[in-house]
Amino acid sequence: MSIPSSRLKQEHVAWPPLRAGLGEGDSLFYARSFGDAPVDIDIEFLAVSQPEVVTRVLEECLFDDQGHGFTPDTIWQWTVKRRLQGLLAIAFASFGNRLNLTSHCQQTGCGEQLEIELQLEDFIDIDDLESIHCEPVPGVSLTLRHPVGLDQILWQQHAREQGSDGLSEYMCKTLIIDSEEEPESVAADLRISDSWQKSIDKALEKADSLTALSLSTRCPVCESENDIALDLERRILSLLAARQRQRLEHVHLIASVYHWSEQEVMQLPPARRNFYVERITGAVTV
What we know:
- The chain is an alpha+beta fold.
- The chain has 10 helices and 10 strands.
């Protein structure tokens, strides 16, 4: 899929945004708003695994600076870090820069609802290093690669076939591309001990801090500090799924009144589709 580059920069949003202090040539992607194309209502958010959903969404909504889309094979080879940046680009094009979260105070006896407002631009990270270095014990040096989308599928397959026992060690082994160690320090099969796994996990987390986020916020009622885990990828997918549900509701509403087919409704430009919904309901749509 491709679009003329002149239309690309008029109708699609650059990521990172040009106003973020980067030049046009620094953009990783151009993204369109999710939910505006007929194909968007065909994406199955629950019927397949999360990595498969991510790949499909990226395939449909992302373009390079020449207006060309990306093939699934290419997207599967992107690092998990780059795939998340692609999702952030689509979220930015779809919802703007603001990301709102709600949680509850974890202090016993409180439970106050906490509202957190984040800026998507705070999660820009275009530094995708080729390799990661780790020293789990003195005298042992490991070179790791960034995990890619295909790794996630292979890890899920291994878990289904072999169970969760040994999964962490398997995941670590698949990411080691080189090792320099003292012979007496490591077994011949390079067994990955628990302490090694923790060291590797720390190195991977340092190289990609957005994969496992923890937000700290103070409760306005009891003033206790709360650490809130945020799975950014899952959160964005849930917002896109909600947008898809909203579009389906709009299709149902317009089709019920005007008796147009699903395809005819989804082929309407978003502004006109919203106009019909507003005429029917008397409410402003987004």
